[in-house]
Amino acid sequence: MTPPEETVAVSSPGTDSTPENQLHRNSMGVTEICFFVVAAAAPIAGMTGLVPSTIVLGNGAAAPGAFLIAGIMLLFFAVGYATMSHHVTHAGAFFAYVGRGLGAPWGVASAFVSVLSYCLVQTAIYGFLGATVSAKMASIGFSMPWWFWCLVALAIVQVFGILNVNLGAKVLGVLLSLELLSMIITGLAVLFHGGGPGGLNIAASFSPTEIFKGAPGVAFAFAFAGFIGFEATAIYGEESRNPKKTVPRATYAAVIIITLIFALTSFAIISGAGSADIVKKTLALTTLDGTPLANPAQLLFSVAGTYVGPWMPELMSWLLITSLFAGVLAFHNSATRYFFAMGRSGLLPAKLGTTGRFKTPVRASVLQTAIGVITIVAFALAGLDPVVTLFYWFAITAILGLTFIQGLVCLAVIRFFRETRADTRLWNTLVAPLLGLVSIVIAEYLLLSRFGLISGTAGTDGQPWEMNFTGWALAALPFVVFVVALGYGFWLEHRKNNDDELVKEFVS
């Protein structure tokens, strides 16, 4: 009798036919996958962007507690996600999981929302990267517009997108190690000094009563945003060594690492600056030309300069650039593997589902680069700000879309194991996924209700759910795409029932 795991396991569609639609097998382990996933979280970028915003607009000194709770909540999701990875190995992780659990049309819809979200977030980070590099280079006398640096980065990322995936993992490993080391040194320096004014006030940052003071909804919305990209572990399943073990381990490791980075480093920053009146201190440090939070990096840089030395902020200013570059490279890989999987499965042109000399999805990679070029050029010609519009608009929209699909994954995991009985562990297949679903629903509500505030499209009063037309259009985008793609999925399923070979291998 065939073991249950083999009965439900999914090899990559089309891999039995030709080598042109196979990725580079056995090329990545837990460490390499973690490099891609943690790099997508862009730790220093998060410390310089998310943390000050969470402090000022959210719950003040208790921002680290919000990141800690968000990480714990996402661990519930990770349990079911990792359990599913034992039985489904596919480069289009979300849409394969949802398709197997809820049915092919739902998988198709998840695929389009996922690839939309990855394209949006990668382009958003390009905007942030271009603005950051432009300002840094101008400070040393080499002034070029933000879009120029975006196009330079696009060209470099395209090269890595074609070459062996292991090369990209090694580059990300070096960049990520450097930025983590800089934050560890800063954190230890604060710790050895016993903190700043007020010392190391653990209660102010991690006490439940403090965490839920102020505007905790805003704090948690920002906190969940910090974890974007952690789900990409399963995307590399086909390229990993022993994916049934590698993917679950990488998933747990990624969530835990990101949680610790944000919770502990933000605690060190707040302790170094002084937890008392941290909101006023953050505003004083980050206000530029009368605009609050216009220069958020100064909170981290100020603490690093005070406790380590003036050389650390200078180093961190360059590591911020490499952190953002690592982020765009990581999300480029995620998006291209979705395009590849969708092409291979018949949802997009079949040529996207082929690989090149290094067993990487070259055509899908070029398509992703073309999308980036068109978007950046369009924003540049329109004279729109790369941070205020391109970054904030697209990043929060992407997070909204990916969070929605994560909720569907939780439902798919529960239904998959209820029907197949491939794994009967109650915690892994029902309890944890249900807790994960509750966490995702809460996160989605918080993101939606604060969408205008986070995206910069809020009305004059800045109240929850208040947005201008642009805000509502952006917030609706992932759901509109989902509904349209769901209809496309049902149409494909109907064609499959009529023995159409085009979609047979995906929906069979």
UniProtKB/TrEMBL annotation:
Q: What is this protein called?
A: Amino acid permease
* Pfam families in the record: AA_permease
Natural source organism: Arthrobacter livingstonensis
Q: What processes in GO biological process is this protein linked to?
A: transmembrane transport
Q: Where in the cell is it found?
A: Membrane
Bilayer topology: Multi-pass membrane protein
Listed under GO cellular component are: membrane
Residue ranges crossing the lipid bilayer per the database entry: 33-55, 61-82, 103-126, 146-165, 172-194, 214-237, 249-270, 315-340, 361-384, 390-414, 426-449, 469-491
Keywords of the record, alphabetical order, are: Membrane, Transmembrane, Transmembrane helix
Q: What InterPro entries does this protein map onto? A: AA-permease/SLC12A_dom, APC_superfamily
PANTHER family, per this entry? AMINO ACID PERMEASE, AMINO ACID TRANSPORTER-RELATED
Positions with biased composition (Polar residues): 9-23
Q: What is its main location?
A: membrane
Indicate the segments forming the Amino acid permease/ SLC12A domain, all copies. Answer: 44-480
Taxonomic lineage per UniProt? Bacteria, Bacillati, Actinomycetota, Actinomycetes, Micrococcales
Q: Which residue ranges does the record annotate as region Disordered?
A: 1-23
